[in-house]
Amino acid sequence: MILELDCGNSFIKWRVIRRGLPVVVAGGVVDSDEKLVDAIASIPGLSLRHSRMVSVRNEEETQKLALAITESFGLQTQCASSARVLAGVRNGYEAYERLGLDRWLALVGAYATVGRSCLVLDLGTAVTSDFVDAQGEHLGGFICPGMPLMRGQLKTHTRRIRYDDAAAEEAHSSFAPGRSTAEAVERGCTLMLRGFAVSQLELAHQYWGDDFVVFVTGGDADLVKDVTPGAKLVPDLVFVGLALACPLL
């Protein structure tokens, strides 16, 4: 079994798969190294043989987690690193090492899946888009705040914006103009994300006509699914790229 880790600044997404089979045995999202170890250790019958990780944390934090995996499960963890070229995709950043590793692996995974021009939309804490042409050239992309950042900034800088998670969830029941602060903020931010997604589709059409594939990933992917018709919703797209960056020996 293979332990795969996607370590962001706030959360760690993890899963266990069987080698050679695209079957997820276990997985989840945690907010600390300790909770990750506890979550994995609590699952009976796991027989881990390999571990690989993509991390946007600094080197010290990344190595600390890798050490915890070694001490808890006796595994050495392969860590993905930046590359100019991977799996037929050429990094489009002038300083290729500055492209976020999670973003890089997601776009590599997308292209490797279809071998065609593709647009990758990742809706997480930040929202990113990336364009890869049919020859595997990464043309670049865009970054903007995601729902957590937009919501957080409004709450931080506007004193009268206060509401709980239940109100936020209820606000997503429609896109009618908001009749409460929660509705106005949640629907307004969502419409901004949807507008961003539509603009990226328009740009992709300018590049490639109709000959491209759209991939949507990230925790808030559902917010744009009905404005990205025909898109491939792939929650674990980063892990597709991780397998290419850290192949098992």
From TrEMBL:
Active site feature: 102
Subcellular location, record wording: Cytoplasm
Cofactor binding notes: A monovalent cation. Ammonium or potassium.
Keywords attached to this entry: ATP-binding, Coenzyme A biosynthesis, Cytoplasm, Kinase, Metal-binding, Nucleotide-binding, Potassium, Transferase
Record keyword Calcium present: no
Binding site for substrate: 93, 100-103, 181
Annotated pathway: Cofactor biosynthesis; coenzyme A biosynthesis; CoA from (R)-pantothenate: step 1/5
Catalysed reaction, written as an equation: (R)-pantothenate + ATP = (R)-4'-phosphopantothenate + ADP + H(+)
GO molecular function, one term: pantothenate kinase activity
EC annotation from Swiss-Prot or TrEMBL: 2.7.1.33
Main location (coarse class): cytoplasm
Gene3D superfamilies for the chain: 3.30.420.40
Binding site for K(+): 122
Enzyme category, top tier: transferase
Pfam families documented for this protein: Pan_kinase (PF03309)
InterPro entries referenced in this protein's UniProt entry, alphabetically: ATPase_NBD, Type_III_PanK
Cofactor (UniProt): K(+); NH4(+)
Function: Catalyzes the phosphorylation of pantothenate (Pan), the first step in CoA biosynthesis.
Protein family according to the UniProt entry: Belongs to the type III pantothenate kinase family.
Database matches in PANTHER family: TYPE III PANTOTHENATE KINASE
Name of the molecule in the record: Type III pantothenate kinase
Record organism: Pseudomonas folii
